[in-house]
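Quick one: structure for this chain?
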Amino acid sequence: MNCVIYVRVSTDEQAREGFSVAGQKERLRAFSLSQGWSLTTEYIEEGWSAKNTERPQLKKLMKDIEKGNIDIVLVYRLDRLTRSVLDLYKLLKTFDDNDTAFKSATEVYDTSTAMGRLFITLVAALAQWESQNLSERVKFGVSQMLDEGKRPGTTSNYGYKFDKDFNCKIIEGEANVIKTMFKWYLEGYGYVSIANMLNERGYEKPKRSKEWGGETVKKCLTNPIYAGHYKWGDRNFKNNHTAIIDELTYQKVQLIRNERTPKTSRLGKFALTGILRCGKCDHRMIGTKHRYRCDKCNSTVAEYKVIDVLLDELEKLISDKDYFTSRLVEIGEDQTNFDAIQIELDKISNQKNKLLDLYVDENSPFDKSELYEKIKKLNEQEQNFKIEIGELNIDNESPSEKYAKIKNLKDIRVQFLKADLHLQKQLLNSIFDTVYFYKIKYKDRKNEVRLDYTLK
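Got it. Here's what it folds into:
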């Protein structure tokens, strides 16, 4: 049988528990040999958490499974694959659909039977609960330490040596590097240029790298710790310890950074870049020489024609609240559907908890296979409801609140045409989520432009 192994370890686990990639590989290779399986591929995921399935090697593994070339997937432990019950459900379904077995080298699972699948789901649920519970305990512990004036963690920032009570010693050589970074940035040098100069001139190296890089320099320049402030999550402790950089220098650097950073979230030299799409094939429209062109079907339209129709529509939206609200009906229906689905999900969750209690109760008079079938149906219903939620367009802002943002816009056409490109883009992006362009042909007239749109 063709067997592959999947090995995963996060950075924290490797440092805290010595849970190394090499150790897992050695044990899995020995296990597959003892079973007489033919080991074909090793998928190694180093430095990745199991919070979700967005991992490069796991994605590659699932693609290979769907090709039908894998008989068995072997892991050291179930939590190497996932700690999420929902993710496990999806992964096992893909395994089943492609006749691929799942095996843990240190745990007894048999996914070929209904009872075995229920058992592995229960184990995954406990693993997810343990992970979430640990996260909550850690956050509570950190918050309590901060309240007591103690410093979370053991690693000190470059330039400092902290103890657990926030007492710090400045490391002069490293502190001089920090001062030099801020000085050079104020002189006009960028992150990469500063990093290159530090490396070329032999300055003290960063603690975890062989040389300086632009991203490391950026982290130093943006870290308030060098101005004497300590930030943890949403908590900020001002004048907490001895500063390496004075407050004025730190704030000057942040001001210059903000000025150098692009202000618009949607780039482009045209007012509708990022929001205009082709109504025919639903592909984006690209701005070029005062025109927009669909990047799939090559349909084109002059920019002034689209802007003219859109400004007409914008005037109607501003002047007529009922008309504006009518454009939000679909979103309102989605919100209603979301509330209804959430109620059903709560009911399913309560039913599942009761059935699971009966299932694990040795004195329960109910047949376990019947309980399993009921739980399985509830899982399927729950999954379908979650898929429906993912397809909804949910917005917690009321129509009145949305309308209040635009109702005071006066002489919108004149003001829009007088504004620069940045302000035009800012206005359109704040009101419209997507604008769809349609070209309508008439026999006795030139092509007309029709637009449809969704509001934010």
